[in-house]
Amino acid sequence: SPIVMSSRIRLARNLENHVHPLMFPSEQDGFRIINEVQDALPNLAVQRLDAMDQQSKYKLVAKHLISPELIRQPASAVLLNEDESLRIMVNEEDHLRIQAMGNDLSLSSLYEQASEIDDKLDSELDVSFDETLGYLTTCPTNIGTGMRASVMLHLPGLTIMKRMNRIAQTINRFGFTIRGIYGEGSQVYGHIYQISNQLTLGKTEEDIIESLSEVVQQIINEEMQIRERLNRHNYTETLD
């Protein structure tokens, strides 16, 4: 698609009887978590950030394999499958951030991939879960499913026509938000935006995925209409 750059499903999980990463008393607490996760998922390659130089770490950030926040943690790691479409950040804000990435609007299949890893971890480790609240996370906004579904979109038409603020206000009322290229708190570069859910409590994973897909499709339709209009009036500039 000329608009959809990537899709992502992220599941936030924590382990019982362990201090959450932002409150680790020492690096050894973080290394223990990494070892437990590595033992539970032996088929994934582990890259420990404490063994990397800064350039290698920033390369992982640029490829969206890890977040900028993971670099700041003294004891952190990322587990990757062979094609790097599935990655698990260890000891960012939560003990585990399971992420499945794709190049199109394939949120349901990505959720199946992430859920398979989640089930494997749940069978091997004690994951923090409450029957009423759902998965317990460091940030209260992630409690519930612990899931963030997001789609990266290239929207030069809507940006040029100054419609992004209106769209952001509209979808915010339905529990969705627009962020920059590297997620929460990041800037918008090259007319690239992330559309994601804000609500994780009181909704099922399927509900979130269906609603986000509908919102994204409406944004895509509006972007395509603007591009067609711009093409008719100023083809060369629009092509650039």
TrEMBL record:
Residues holding ATP: 6-10, 64, 97, 148-152, 179-184
Pfam families registered for this protein in UniProt: ATP-gua_Ptrans
Superkingdom to which the source organism belongs: Bacteria
Gene Ontology cellular-component annotations: extracellular space
Catalytic activity: L-arginyl-[protein] + ATP = N(omega)-phospho-L-arginyl-[protein] + ADP + H(+)
This enzyme's EC code(s): 2.7.14.1
Similarity comment: family membership: Belongs to the ATP:guanido phosphotransferase family.
Name of the featured protein: protein arginine kinase
Source organism phylogeny: Bacteria, Bacillati, Bacillota, Bacilli, Bacillales
